[in-house]
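Late entry, evening session. Most of the bench is empty. Finally got around to the prediction I had been postponing all week. Sequence below, unchanged from the version circulated by S.P.
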Amino acid sequence: MSAIGRDSINIRRMTISDIDSMIAIINKVTNVKPHGVYQDLIAYDIGGPLDLSLAAEVGGQLAGFVLARLEYIYVPLVEVCLIHVIAVDPEYQRHHIGSALVSALSSHCRPKGVEKIRALVRQGDDELQNFIEHQGFHPSSMVNWDKTCEA
């Protein structure tokens, strides 16, 4: 694929009509068939007051997306934009689409008074961690603690 200039990437708010294309991208980047929970997560509150999700199009085709929500966490409550998923179709990777999505998300958050964007990255996912660090993210002062729910 030839180089894609930033001016040929159209970043817009995500809509319900993007769901099938988003699922197709998730299929390509994970090699796992997403089940209903993906559709529910994506469809939940699209366009609503807490939704900050964006889609990236190239030539009218969905090339990537960031699924993000406004979240209130901890005590006292802290307002953050939480990135649930950021994905770029493998055909369009390495063309700055992910960077354009993060930049647009930051620009979208500022006027809303949201000062912090948080991305969760699995330990050992060096590629994603390098991307996130390159976008200006740094380790948070928050530490996640997980508990497995027992039957």
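Two things to note before I forget:
The mean pLDDT is 88.
Strands lie at 9-13, 54-58, 61-73, 78-88, 117-119.
Will write this up properly tomorrow.
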